[in-house]
Each structure stands twice: as C-alpha cells, then as structure tokens.
Amino acid sequence: MKKMIAGLGFALAAAAMTTGANAADTYPDRPISVMVSYGAGGATDFQARIVTMVAGNEDLLGQPIVIINKPGAGGRVGWNWLATKADNDGYTVGAYNVPHFIAQSIKGGVQYSTDSFEPIANWGSDPAVVVVGKDSEFDSMEDLVAYAKKNPGKTTMSGAGLFVGHHIAALQIEKACDCKMAYIPTKGGGAAAMKAVIAGDTLAGINNLSDAYRAREAGNVKILGVADLERNEEFLADVPTLKEAGLDVDNSSVNFRGLMVPKGTDPAVIEMLAAKVPEMFANGRVAKRMKAGGSPMKIMTRDEVLKMWSERQTYLEELLEGL
Amino acid sequence: MEFLSYFGGVFEPVAMLLLLGGTVGGLILGATPGLSPTMAVALLIPFTFHLSPTHGLILLGAAYTSTVAGGAVSAILLRIPGAPANIATALDGHEMAKQGEGARALHLSFLASGIGGVIGVLLLIFLTPVLAQWALAFGPSHLFWMAILGVTLIGSLDSKSFVKGLLSGCIGLWLSTIGYDDMQGAPRFIFADALTGGINIIAALIGLFAIPQVMEMFAKGRNAAAIQAVTVTKHKLSASAKEIGQSGRALTVGTVVGSIIGLIPGVGGQIAGLVAYDQTRKLSPHKAKFGTGHPEGVIAAESANNAMVGPSLVPLLTLSIPGSPTAAVLLGGLLIHGIFPGGDLFERHPEVIWTFINSMLLGQILMVAFGIWIAASAAKIARAPMPIMAAAVLILAVFGSYSVQQSMGDVYVMLVLGIGMYALEKFGFSAAPLVLGLILGPIAEANFIQGSMIATATDGSLAYFFGGPLNIALVSLVVGSILYSFLSNRQVNTALKTVEAAE
Amino acid sequence: MTGARTQHIVPAGIVLAVAIIVAWLSFTEEPTEAFLFPRIISVAFVGLAVWNMYRAAAGLARVGGGIDGRTALNVLPGLIVALAFVFFAATALGFYVAGTLTFLAIYTIYDPTPLSSLNGWVRRIIVTAVFMAVMYGLFALLLKVQTPRGMFF
Q1: Same domain, yes or no, for C84 and C41?
Q2: Is the pLDDT of residue B433 over 90?
Q3: Can you give chain A as a three-state secondary structure string?
Q4: Mean pLDDT: which of A171-175, B229-233, B342-346 is highest?
Q5: Disruptive mutation site among A44, A46, A162 for chain B (greatest number of B CBs within 10 Å)
Q6: Between A and B, how many residue pairs show a Cβ–Cβ distance under 8 A?
C-alpha cells in the first residue's frame, strides 16, 4: 500500500514537472494579472491600464492583462504581497515605482528589496516638479529658497507620502539649499498633495510632472522647477531644472514606472516577457493615449532597468543614511 | 441653459445604445458583491478606448450613476451592501425585503435615487463655480473635525444602547488602524498574515453585514416551519410614487445632506447615506421604527447617495482634483481622450462635457425605469427557500470579497469579522457604528497627522485646529451631536425603566 | 435572569480584554508617531469597555438575547462547512469545485426534505449547478477574476 502511494506521488510529481516544462512553451494561456500598489484612479494605475491595453494582440502576449489594485502604506502593502505571497508562475506581474520601493526597502520594515523582484521593462518616467498655488508670492525657485532660508522649518511642502519620489526630491532640495523646510506627506497620492497646494493648505508642493502640467493647464498652479537633468521639452519647455536654479539636485527622484515579476519566475517566461513587453509599450495606440493624458513615456529594456535599479540603490543608501 | 442645446448628442442612436448599455451594465456590476462603483467604472474604462470622447463619457457617466443605485439592489435583497454608500440602505431595506416588501423597497429606492440624482446633477450644472470654492475650503483640520463629527453620530445611530454603540464605533476605529501605517509604514496590530494589507473596507462590509445574516438563517435549523417562504407582496408603482410624494421630509433631508457632503473631497461619498439616514431619523416622529423595515430609512439613504454623484464631480471638473476614488477613475477616462478638466473645460470642450452631464441626467431616468421594471421579479429572490439563500449569500460573499483585490487574506478577514459580528449582535452591539468607525478612522488619522505637521510648522496646534469660522462651526456641531445623543439616550432609558416598572 | 447576566458578562469581558491588549500594544510599540492615533482610540476603547463591563455585571445590559444552546446547535454544522470552505477547500480544491460542494452541503444540511427523497437530491443538484454556472459566468467570464485553482478548478 505504501509503495502504491509513493508511486502515485512520484507519478504526480512527474506529471507536475512535465506540465511545468510545457507551461513555459504555451505561456501565456490565460489572462495575466498586473498588481498595482496604488488605488484605482492614481497615476500609476491609470498609466498601467493604458500601457497594458493591447496585451491581448496576437503578436504581443495574446492574452489580456487585468489590473488588480493593492493599495496601502505608500505601496508597501502591494510590494510585500508580490514579494512574499504572489505565485511566481508568470501570471502575476507587478508594477514598480522607483525610487519608492527601493527607498522603502533601505528604510527597512518591509519584506522586499531589489533582490526580491526581476524587472521586465520600464514604460514611463515622471520627474518630480515643485509647484505653488496660482496666486503664490513665489515666482521662481530662488524666491522659494530665499523664503525658506529666512523662515527655517516654516515652508510647508506637500508630497505623496514618505520615502516616495516626492520625499526624495524634498530631501535633495533641503540638502542642496542647506535650508530647512517642512515636508507634509499626504495620504491619497499625488492628487491629495496637489489639492493641498491649490487650496493653500501648504505653501508649496512637490508633485508629478504629468499632474502638475494638467493643473497648470487648468490655471491652478505655477511650476517652479523640474527635478531632472534636462528640461522636459515635450510638456514643460519653459520650466527650468532645479540645477539651472542653482540647486544641486539630479534625477534621482524621477518616478520610473514599469513591470516586474517576483523572484523565482521561470527564466524562459521572464525572457519572453522581456522581449514582448517593450514592444507592447511601444505600440502606437498606447503612445497616443499616454501623450493625450500628459504622461511622459520612457521605454527601457530589462537590462537597462537592472542598471537603473542598482544605480538608484547605491545613491539612495547614501542619501537616506542617518535619516 | 446651455446644456439643453447639447441634448441632441445624447439622442443619436449610438449614444442612446451606450447610455442604455452603461445603465444596465452599471446596475448589474453595482449589484455584484465586492464590486464597488470605483472598480466598476475602472473596468469599463478599457471599453472607452475604442470610442470617441463623447461616446466614452456617455458610457462612463451612465455607469457611474447606475452602479451607485445598483449597490442598493444587493443591499436590500441580500443584505450585502455593494459599497459604503449603500450601508444605510441595507439597514431598513433588507428588513422590508424579509417581510415580503422587497418590491416596495426597490421601488422606493430607485425613485428616491432618481430624484436625488437628478437634483444632484442639476446642482452640478448650475452651481459649479460657487460649489468649487466650498470644496476647497476644507483643509486637513476641517476634514479631521468632519470625521470626528461622523464618529459622534455613532452614539445615536444605534438607538438600542448608547455605550454599546460607542463601543462598536471604537472597535471599528481600532480595526481601521490594523496593517501598515500609511505614513511611516510601521506595522500595527498585525496578528495574522492575512492582516498585513490592513482590513479592506469592501471585504469587511460584506462580512459584517452578510455573514451574520447567513448565520441567522442557519440558526433556524432544519425546520420546515422556519423556512416557509416569504410571501412577496406585489406592489403597484403608483402606490410607490404616491408614497414618495408623501415622504417629503426624508427626501429633502437625503438630497440636501447628500449634495452638501458629496462635495467634500475624500469624505463625502462614503458617509452621505449614513449621515442622511441618521438625520432623517432624528427629525422623524417615528424614530423607533427605523431599523425595522421603515421606508423612510431607505428613501433618505438612497436619495442621499445618488444626490452625492453630481456634486462629487464639481472639484474634478473645475479644479481637476478628484474628490473621490470614483472621480479619480473618471479623470482617467477623460485623460485618455486628451481632455483636461479645469476652469475652462466648459469653453474648450463644451460638446463633450455637456453630453457627459446630460448622459448622467438621462442615465438617472433610465436607471429608475429599468430598476422599477426589474423590481417585481428581483424581489422574488426573497421567496427562495432559506437553505438556498444561506448557501448563495455565503458563496457570493466569498467570491465577492476575493475579487476586490484577488486576495485570500481578504476572504479570511471577511469570514472572521462576520462570525465575530454575529456574536456581538447577539449581545446588543451593531454593525453600522462599527463600519462607520472603520470608514472614518483612516480619514481622521491622516488629517490629524497632516494637520499636526502643518500646525507645528506654522502657528501651533491650537490655532490650527480651533481657529477660523469653519473649525469653530464644526467643533460646535461635534459638541452638539454628543449632547444630543446623550440626552436622547437618557430619555430612552427613562422610558425603558417606566415600561419595566409598569410590568 | 442570572443566566442572562452571565451571558452578558462573557462578551463584555472579552471586549474589555481586547481593549486592554490594544491599549497595552499602543503604548508600548514603536515608532511613537505611528501609534499616536491608536493611543487616543485605545483610551476611549478601554473606558467604554469598562463602563460596558460594569453594566453587564450590574445586570443593566438589556439589549441582545444572547445565544442559547439550541441556536448554537443549529448554527454549528453550517459554520463548520463555511470555515472548511474558506480556510481549506477554497484554495485546496479550487474556488468553483469547493463552492459547488459547499453550496450543496449547506443546502442539504438545512433542507427539510428527507435525505431519502430522490426528488430532493435532483432538485438540490440542479439548483447548485445553475447557481455555480451563474457565478462562473459573472466572475470568471465577465469580470475575469483569477480565483485560486487548487487541485481541480
């Protein structure tokens, strides 16, 4: 009897292995879920829905992509889930936000780091910008910095949470101007941080370029500077970089968005995704919708993303040291 | 009256078809447990990729209005509120359905939704510029006091026992802090693996309302007499219409409260129904009947949560600030077509935006018509034998709570909370204040912390939280609300004692 | 009357114990900023729980009839099926297979039709199949929810 059970177990294991081998060949044969660590309607959710909308095309993945939202604690809930609970069968993919998840893993208290995930490809880059209300007395970064120097700790600046791109930008600005500001993290993402600026709850704010561009189009805010290496010619050609304004701030706070899978996913599946996903992002219809929404695209391959992750890791460890 | 000139766009064949599809689809999605209006609209966004901006928005507008009302169907028939907005509807609506008055409850709910909804959209059309400023007036300190005001309703929401009502609210507030803290990312009260993500509000709603109901059915046992089918009374539409006509008080309170609260970004939509329900009861001569299947409760709750739909879009359309998660999703629907909301939206894209608003207006009317058409047959669900009903609600609860974020943890939390709630209900605690605590906890906490940080950087906490007319007005309302519930509770207690003495 | 009083003391005691644990954790765990709000809540929580305990002990708790033996006995089988479904069968067997078995089990347990009646079984199986088909259509086909597949489906 024991032998029979053992034999049965062996047969089952063998069967599982063969299906495993076949699985990579036929992948994907059912819809793929993409987990977004922020709520429905946020910038990451919105962009993820657009860039994955053509996944079902026969020449791309051939299966539709479904978005699942797991919001909470600035993205920690979703990424913890992806690192520890998600199946690594290739049918569970996650959206990443850099520098958010890297900064959080350096700060500690989470169950993931860059080693927990395998990047697939990057679809967008959204630099942080400094915004003030439309009637604000500040017309340039110089004005804002001068005020902050005169009133240390009183320049309230909203941003979408702690240890996200906006927070990194705020820390970099404080370091560069050698002055003290008051960073106010809001709950509810960029939209809530923007509301704080428009309503005058805070003196200034740090926000996504895409959201700030729209708010300025609507006549609600002034944009003082972009935390990137170059000006954004596509949307904000008239706004200087922080470097031009005399602040030594680089592009470390730029919010990169892309797809990744949990560690342990079949290399064949990763390879297949890494080949097809950038193609999916490059689709003409995707580009058109992203541009219409004011969301800057930046397609990067798996190798480029791996390099970007490790650069950010090194820099952020240095910036966040002793915080 | 500019909007009238754009009505033509809604009546062309494709637009009409989308309007109909959006309304019916929205009702079905809204009635599906676990699918909140936010998720339902998010699911429909991909369909709009293939449509022109105007057509896409007609679909979204119709779907938004009808998902909110669709949630009332499952709240009334199954006691599974589709979203926080429908909690108050379940309180009296399900009692009515159990008494065979399901058709009447559905009629009233749809009629009240329609009236509240139309008024809400009219407010959006005519008062947008005025209302936009009102929405911005609420800063962190005011939102904090708003949440506290909501919490104080707890004391009076549960008429049976003052202390147990407040205690239920405290349990809810505590449950809301479970999981990783939003600001620091510090783990709090994570006793089990399923709690790492915190308690999902939709899953909790399903558990707290549906599971005690299932257990109540189990409690009747395998007993032919206990499971005798409810006789579902047929209800004439004319009678419902007449009843609505006579329920001016509930309708007015619901609509006014719904549209005012709907405007406040971040708080409004979720509690509009409960606040309106509570206010209506306070003003009603039949206080004691609330919670036992009183039609006024359904009317107040449903008129409020559809009246909120129009005003909740004001901050979005004028300031590009989404005031609710659903508005955020709708913003996405606008953006993919390159339409940026903002002050001059009505000048730049009048055809698109007026057609969108008109579709919400017509969507309300279609929703009422379709809702009433299905009411009679839908109400027959109450006739299903008890064992089928119990099994079906349990399975729906499990599938629904799983589908919120495809997480087994949410299902565990749903069932455990539900079983706990059953036991607590047996000892006089109630689900409504607990849920209110669960909803308001995060709002109160986030705004308290954010407000304190701003206060430290500026003029100090006292000036920040108590300065200015709006803060003072809200604080007085909080104090008034506590006094009111304490005093009215003493009255109830005295009345109870007199009854006991007489016995 | 004394029975009812004991019945109220037990839940009041449990709620009080929970409140004390919550308060203790709130005031001892780090970081302080994250536990500021829980501290405020837990103070109110403990206060109210003590008041509730006093009312229960003094026999002042009038609301709620408690759970009697007969009710508990009736609820138990359904509860066991529900727990087994959620905590074991749903992931082990797959949502749809487990759901079908659960539906059939609950329907059978609480259906007054005698188990020997063939018609009863036919009706129960048909109702279960129709209901689960609707669930499949709604969640799997329409909403594309990826439910756990387990051993079967």
Answers
A1: no
A2: no
A3: CHHHHHHHHHHHHHHHHHHHHHHHHHCCCCCEEEEECCCCCCHHHHHHHHHCCCCCCCCCCCCCEEEEECCCHHHHHHHHHHHHCCCCCCCEEEEEEECHHHHHHHHCCCCCCHHHEEEEEEEEEECEEEEEECCCCCCCHHHHHHHHHHCCCCCEEEECCCCCHHHHHHHHHHHHHCCCCEEEECCCHHHHHHHHHHCCCCCEEEEEHHHHHHHHHCCCEEEEEECCCCCECCCECCCCECCCCCCCCCCCCCEEEEEEEECCCCHHHHHHHHHHHHHHHHCHHHHHHHHHCCCCEEEECHHHHHHHHHHHHHHHHHHCCCC
A4: A171-175
A5: A46
A6: 168
Chain B residues close to A163, C-beta within 8 Å = 185
Q: Is the pLDDT of residue B500 over 60?
A: no
Answer with the one of C34, C57, C80 that is the final residue of a domain.
C57
- Name the token pair of B306: 């559809």
Contact state of B174 with C22 under an 8 Å Cβ cutoff: yes
For residue C66, being part of any structural domain is answered with no
High-pLDDT (> 90) share of chain A, %: 56
Other C-beta atoms within 10 Å of B385: how many? Answer: 17
Provide DSSP, B25-48: HHHHHHHSTT--HHHHHHHHHHHH
Q: How many domains does chain C have?
A: 2
Alpha helices in B406-468, H assignment, sequence order: 408-426, 431-457, 461-466
User: Which member of A184, A198, A218 has the closest CB to residue B340?
Assistant: A218
The residue segments making up the domain with residue C11 are 2-57
Residues from chain B that touch A45, judged by Cβ atoms under 8 A, are 42, 332
Residue of B nearest to A164 (CA): B183
Does the pTM surpass 0.90? The reply is no
C69 min Cα distance to partner chain B (Å): 10
Which of the 8 DSSP states describes residue B2? G
A chain contacts of residue B458, beta-carbon cutoff 8 Å: 154, 156
The answer to whether the bond into A296 is cis (omega within 30° of 0) is no
Does the CB of B35 have a partner CB in chain C at under 8 Å? yes
Same domain assignment for residues C78 and C136: yes
Q: Is residue C82 part of a domain?
A: yes
Decide if C149 is inside a domain.
no
Domains of chain A are 31-126+254-319 (3.40.190.150), 128-226 (3.40.190.10)
pLDDT at site B198: 87
Q: Residue C62: inside a domain, yes or no?
A: no
Q: Do C146 and A31 touch (CB under 8 A)?
A: yes
A47-92 pLDDT, tens digit per residue, is 998 899 889 888 899 998 989 988 888 899 899 999 998 888 899 9
The tokens describing B13, both together, are 């064949």
Which chain A residues touch B336 with a CB distance below 8 Å?
A: 50, 289, 292-293
User: What is the value of ipTM here, to two decimals?
Assistant: 0.94
What average pLDDT does range B2-19 have in this prediction? 80
Q: ∠ CA A240-A244-A248 to the nearest 5 degrees?
A: 120
pLDDT score recorded for residue B373: 87
Contact B417, B409 (CB under 8 A): no
Residue A183 makes CB contacts below 8 A (sequence gap 6+) with A157, A159, A167, A170, A171
A195 phi, psi to nearest 5 deg: -60, -40
**Tens digits of residue pLDDT in B193-221:** 888 888 988 899 999 999 998 998 899 88
Instruction: Note whether B453 contacts A182, CB cutoff 8 Å.
Output: yes
Interface test with C, best of B148, B218, B396, B402 (most C CBs within 10 A): B218
